[in-house]
Structure formats: structure tokens, C-alpha cells
Amino acid sequence: MATLLGILIGAFLWFLVRVVLFGIYTVDQNQRAVKTIFGRAERVPGAATTLDDPIAAHLREEEKERYIYPQVRVIPPGGPYFKMPWERIYKVTIATNTMNMAMDLEDPHANAGGTVLDAVTKDQLNTGLTGQIRYRVSEANLYAFLFGIKKPIVHVMGYFVSVLRQRIANFEAKQAPTDPAAAVSAEMTGVSINDLRKNLRDLNEYMDQECKSAQARYGVVLDASLITGIDPPPEVESALAAINTAHNQVSSDISLAQAGADQKIVQSKRAVEIETLKAQAEVEPLKRLAAELSDLQQASPTILEAYLRNVRLRLYEKAKDVYLEVKQ
After folding, report:
1. How does pLDDT run across 134-182, given as a tens digit for each residue?
2. Which three-class secondary structure state does DSSP give residue 35?
3. Given phi > 0 = left and psi -120 to 50 = alpha, else beta, which region is 252?
């Protein structure tokens, strides 16, 4: 009897420690948690999937069949919460993290020790890229991050690097056909490294747009890509500098010629305006005189004859010689 009582007391103490003490947990403010019951993640009611969430809008149609994950119940920050022994809690941090984009999580020695990422441009130049990416775990797709992929960050980095290298290999600067100087400048340059350096902002925006599907793919949100440097190989640095110098000289000459042409156009327009004003100043008195003579003619023909006689007399006073026509 005593042995049975001891067994019951021991079982009760084990249950108290295992269930009550180890069954209580909390979730920090920068964390979210997912509960599994006998290994199965607890779903939201209605059997909803990620295709029902707006994050699936960035997936292509052929990808929607592959990246279908159930929506799980997310445990918010707070507590204490309680779980049973057959239940397990998975906690993830949703804070934004920053990582060097050249970092290889599977091989720390790759990419010059995770400092420079190699990429080939459209003119077959091997360039070195430096920069960072900011990412965070997607609260809307915790199933993919926890259970869908073994190493989601590795997948995201691989996807980012492949998209970046593809973009570098096919990058072409936007032309400005309305600006003759810019068009000539683009023809004179023809070097993809120069185009990339001048359009870093467009490159970063393109990467942000292309990587929006990572949230539905891997449960990771890429907040921003910050590509800060594009360095050519040392053997072409001097040649590239010479090309840039010549390009700058040509651009300067084009700008000076354009400025001189614009100045001449402005001067010509001003001269035309001055001559037009002079002609208007000479024509205006004649118009007024014609209007006065018309009014006199309408008033009385004798008045117009008297006006003409007075004008003729004033002209005689100013003239030194007068020649009269005599009728034969």
C-alpha cells in the first residue's frame, strides 16, 4: 500500500513539474510563436492558405501551385501561456536584421570572406559588388519559415544573388531621347560599369521589386537592398578612367556648344522683337492719321480740303525750293 502511495505521489509530482512548470511560457515583444500539436502546426479556422493573403500577389501563376502554405495561428507577444506536454512552441524573432549581401551562410570563406560579391556585366567584365540587405521574418507566412524550408535565409540569399547577377549581366541605362547631349553621351560611353554606377538607385529599386515574392516563397521579407559599390577589375581600372576622362571632355564640349547655340537663339529672338516694336511704332501714327482723315471725309469734303491746304502750307514753310507742275 505504501509503495502504491509513493508511486502516486511521484507521478503527481512529475505531472506537476512536467505540465505546470514546464508548460508555462511567454513571448517577447519582438517575437511571434507558433504551436504544434503532435507535430502538426495549429491552423487558423477555415483552412486558409497563403494564396488567400495579399502576399501571393507577387507570385507568378506557375509559382502559386508550388508555394501553397497553410496559414497558422500566430501567438502574439505576452503571457504567461500554457501548453500541454504533447504540444511544442516555436518562437521566431521578427526584428529587422542586416546582412552583407556577399555573405555565404554555408561557406564563410566564399566571396572573399563574405565581403565582395562577383558578377559579370554585359561587356564581360568581372565586377565586385558591395552592399547590404535588410530582412525580417514574415508574420503572415510563419509556416514557410518554420516548416516549409530547412534554411530559409540561405534560400533568400541565393535567390537575391541570382536575381542580382542576372540584372547586372543584362543592365542597360535608360536613354533620354529628348536630350541630344545625353544621347551622344550614352553612345560615347558604352561601358556597363559606368551605367551601373550612375544608376545604383534604379538597380536597388529593381531588386526590391523583384524580391517582393520572397515573402510568399520563404516567409522572409526583404525590406531593402543597399548596393553601395561597384568596382571594376584592377587591370581595367586605368582604361576605364581614360574612357571616363574622354567622355567627360566630350560632354563638356557638347554642353558648351549647346550653351553657345542657345545664347545665339536668344539674341536673335531679342533682335526680332526690337525690330517688330520699331515697325509698330512707325505704323501706329499712320493708322491714327488715316482714321482722322476718314472722320474728316465723313464729316464734310470741304473740311478735308481745308485740312490738306493747311498741311501743304506748313510744308511750304519748311521747304527751301518748291517745284510746281504747270499744265500746258
Report:
1. 889 988 888 888 888 888 888 888 888 888 888 888 877 665 555 554 5
2. strand
3. alpha
H or E stretch at 40: strand 40-41
The predicted-structure confidence for 86-114, as pLDDT tens digits, reads as follows: 888 899 998 888 888 888 888 888 888 88
Place of cell 502574439: 76
pLDDT digits (tens, 9 = 90+) for 243-274: 666 666 777 778 778 888 888 888 888 888 88
Pairwise CA distance, residues 220 & 135, whole Å: 7
Closest-CA residue to 297 (of 286, 306, 309): 306
**DSSP 8-state secondary structure symbol assigned to residue 58:** G
Q: Could you give the dihedral angle defined by the CA atoms of residues 263, 265, 267 and 273, in that order, rounded to the nearest 10 degrees?
A: -150
Exposure string (b/e) for 50-78, b if CB count within 10 Å is 16 or more? bbebebbebbeeeeeeebebbbbebbeee
- The Cβ of residue 92 has, within 10 Å, a number of other Cβ atoms equal to 19
Cell (9 digits) for 141: 507566412
Q: Which residue has the cell 522572409?
A: 220
Specify the DSSP class assigned to residue 42.
P
Residues β-bridged to residue 107: none
pLDDT digits (tens, 9 = 90+) for 32-81: 999 998 888 888 888 888 888 888 888 888 888 888 889 889 889 987 88
* pTM (two decimals): 0.61
H helices then E strands: how many in the chain?
A: 11, 10
Q: Which residues of 204-222 are buried (b: 16+ CB within 10 A; e: fewer)?
A: bebbeebbebbbbbbbbbb
Distances (CA, A) of 290 to 98, 276, 279, 283, 304: 86, 21, 17, 11, 12
